[in-house]
Amino acid sequence: MMKKIPGSLLYRYLCVFIAINLLCCNASFSQELPFRNAALTSEARAKDLISRMTLQEKVLLMQDQSPAIPRLGIKKFNWWSEALHGLANNNGVTVFPEPIGMAASFNDSLVQIIFDAVSDETRARYHETIRNGGENKRFLSLSVWTPNVNIFRDPRWGRGQETYGEDPYLTTRMGVSVVKGLQGPPNAKYRKLLACAKHYAVHSGPEWSRHELNLNAVKPRDLWETYLPAFKALVQDADVRQVMCAYQRLDDEPCCANNRLLQNILREQWGFKHLVVSDCGAITDFYTSHKVSSTPSHAAAKGVLAGTDVECVWEGYAYANLPDAVKKGLINEKKIDESLLRVLIGRFELGEMDPDGIVPWAATPASVINSKKHQQLALDMARQSMTLLQNNNNLLPLSRSAKKIAVIGPNADNEPMLWGNYNGTPVSTVTILKGIQSKLKPGNVFYNKATDLVENKVTETYFSKLLHEGKKGFKATYWNNKERSGQPAITVQVTEPLKLTTAGQHEFASGVKLEGFSALYEAEFTAPETEEVVFKGGATGEFELLVNGQSLVKYTNWRTVPARFPYKVERGKTYKIEIRFAQSNNWQANLEIDFGKENPIDFGLLIDQLKGIDVVVYAGGLSTLLEGEEMPVSFPGFKGGDRTDIELPEVQRNCLKALKAAGKKVIFVNCSGSAIALTPETESCDAILQAWYGGQSGGQAVADVLFGDHNPSGKLPVTFYRNTKQLPDNFEDYSLKGKTYRFMNDALFPFGYGLSYTRFAIGEGRLSSSFIKQNDQLTLTVPVSNNGKRAGTEVLQVYIRRTNDTEGPLKTMRAFKKIELMAGKSANAVLSLPYNSFEFYGEQQLEMKVIPGQYEILYGTSSADKDLRKLTVSVQ
Q1: CA 516 to chain centre
Q2: Residues 709/380, Cβ–Cβ less than 8 Å
Q3: Residues 35, 309, 359: CA angle, nearest 5 degrees
Q4: Exposed (0-12), middle (13-18) or buried (19+): which is 624, by Cβ within 10 Å?
Q5: What DSSP element (H or E) covers 702?
Q6: What's the angle, vertex CA 290, arms to CA 203 and CA 544, rounded to 5?
Q7: Which position among 64, 82, 253, 279 bears the catalytic label?
Q8: Which residues of the chain have pLDDT under 50?
């Protein structure tokens, strides 16, 4: 017999029953929604989802950090991750050489393999994090804003290291390989990652004026022949899924609101169907810097109408004002839907909204991260990037039987320098010092830093003179919030110069979180003399240095770099020193501070220490503490991350001169992301090796070359000028006249140049025909011989010039091929020259076109005239 249920309890049962049925119905209904159907096309799914969203929800998904929309089951998504030469801003990943170094390899096949490895590591780290309860956050996503295919037109640009050099063809070959490696097979159902061609377009510094710069004198020929070819190829040949518009204006219109760039060229002429993302803060620049908009609403409408689909900002989205812009009639919702369609198609193509079980890339195991295979790839590329510029009297390679050699210089034992910029943090790094030590018996390598990168003085630290309540050092108080409020997480005494980082999952102190924390460092200093002391250091995060309550420096940037902050003190007077710090956004936190008095460098003492040592390896150059993106650098010769001159810093030049004067055999290992004017150094150095920023295995690669375990084959992807005077005064002038190998022929070391430990000979080339017609292809066959005693690799380069083109480039690369030959062997290099190899800008036609006439085909081992042979061909 059924038991009677009280009325109130029956009501509760009914409510539960109805709720369960509603949940089941909703779940069933959700499964049947078209946007949930993985069998449909990404476009069909995106259109269905858009039809179910409110305007406010749509706008949220056009922000680079897009929040979740629970009612539709849409997860949080972040568009901004970096993979410039490995997964950036992550720990324990493989760090490959900086792109400018990869360009020196002239090996686009290896580049594609490397970026396939990078995409594996990105997929593996992303899914591992999500499965462990983490989230899709900035710098951990499946959208990566790589590659940078801007042309490195001027060596003063600090971000040129991120590019593949000054040549449009080399940049194109490398960029296409990057995209193919990152995005995966074109016929796969899901994209491995979404790559991004940046920064579109005509963008290569200066850093200090990029938010206000207006380029209204760029010649059409420079635009089409130099600044646009790589972008066109990435769109049409690599099917890149994202294009990032640049900060500056082109012909009075910001690039992210430039209809000519985004509509006429990108979409109508090139057929780009995918999404455009703004550089970070480029939309807000419309009203804060460019003054083409008066309000955030107007700026947002202007960006979307031009075709910028996703906005990136540091804080305060202009796109959040799109509903207001609709109300004001500045834009209609249909235009917003058009942009959002491209955004959502990208997300569906990643499989980000589908179960992991049907997305093959989701099964990528975490074991691929920094695997032995990837470590070997990093070493192989580092070796191939090494570019030997000078080797007087065949000083190199060195003998392993050397009794003792000296390794000195600011980059000799510097791990972060090797990582370059936009980098991850590797598990381990082989510095140049460690690499050389691995080649010789213990005790046979003398090491001394000798100089700093820039400064002519060394700092005698006063850190030991700091006191707090009678205890030596700083009192350091940490909070697990950014406001330095509430109960501290821990208070400790710091007795050594501050050198703290969260890289590698390191805490600033026990119990302090890796993100969202703050710190206060307090101490007193009693001056022993009346003198000037300097604080040296910098931070990644929010940073302020105060003395007696006076703020000496305050940074709120997303990153800062080491600099010096002088302060005069009086003997016997006590000064209160405070450092306030907070971790910023999703960036790794770093803090380095020391202070003391500066003393002149005594090279005489260094020379005394080198008695009995004949060979000195000086590892110097630059680092990403000096050249980079929008940096507040306060050293002579540097401004905003760019350089104001291209000479080697004076202190390093003086050190090299002193070593030479002392009779030493000097090997200069130059680490930099850009060309250095090495005119004096060719006299003071016996050998010069351009080592770039070689990644986690960069030091091993340097040592392998110095001791002959690897025969160098790198070629310069940029021109090395004789001095700064060869450059135009106006860095903001985007005219190419007198710049790059294509418009000057008086370089110290030309584009395409690089020595080997063996001797190659180039024979007479043969063309398959003396003429070429549309849809035809020429074949160039060139005999190459290794006449030396070692196996080696040569890069055969092919340049083309239109004979009667007085306004055009002196020569332009159109093909290259790497050839590996054993000693005494010969082979034919066979290169294809399709009809469009002869395409140049027609001043009368106002477009890129193959113009009939006579052309010169130049082939050889560098772009220098003396290294090239010539053939002529008739183009019909």
Answers
A1: 26
A2: no
A3: 40
A4: buried
A5: helix 698-706
A6: 85
A7: 279
A8: 1-30
Integer Cα distance of 685 and 662 in angstroms: 12
Using one digit for the tens of pLDDT, what is the confidence trace for 353-387?
999 999 999 999 999 999 999 999 999 999 999 99
Residue 362 has which token pair? 């989701």
Exactly one of 627, 629, 686, 839 is catalytic; name it: 627
Strands 518-526 and 550-555: unpaired
Q: What is the pLDDT of residue 672?
A: 98
Catalytic residue at 627?
yes
pLDDT at 27: 41
Token duo for residue 799: 């340049």
Number of other CB atoms surrounding residue 115 within 10 Å? 30
Q: What is the DSSP letter of 712?
A: -
Q: Are 740 and 167 in contact (CB under 8 A)?
A: yes
CB 237 within 8 A of CB 753: no
The whole-model pTM stands at 0.92
Mode of pairing for the β-strands spanning 687-690 and 387-391: antiparallel
Q: What is the three-class DSSP state of 872? A: strand
All structural domains of the chain: 1-32 (no CATH), 38-368 (3.20.20.300), 383-456+602-726 (3.40.50.1700), 458-600 (2.60.120.380), 760-875 (2.60.40.10)
Give the phi and the psi of residue 531 in degrees, each rounded to 5: -165, 180
pLDDT tens digits for range 626-643: 999 988 766 889 998 999
pLDDT in the model for residue 562? 67
Token pair of 811 as six digits: 């020569």
Q: Phi and psi (nearest 5°) for 297?
A: -65, -45
H helix count then E strand count, the chain: 20, 40
C-alpha dihedral (16, 21, 27, 30), degrees to nearest 10: -120
Catalytic residue status for 356: no
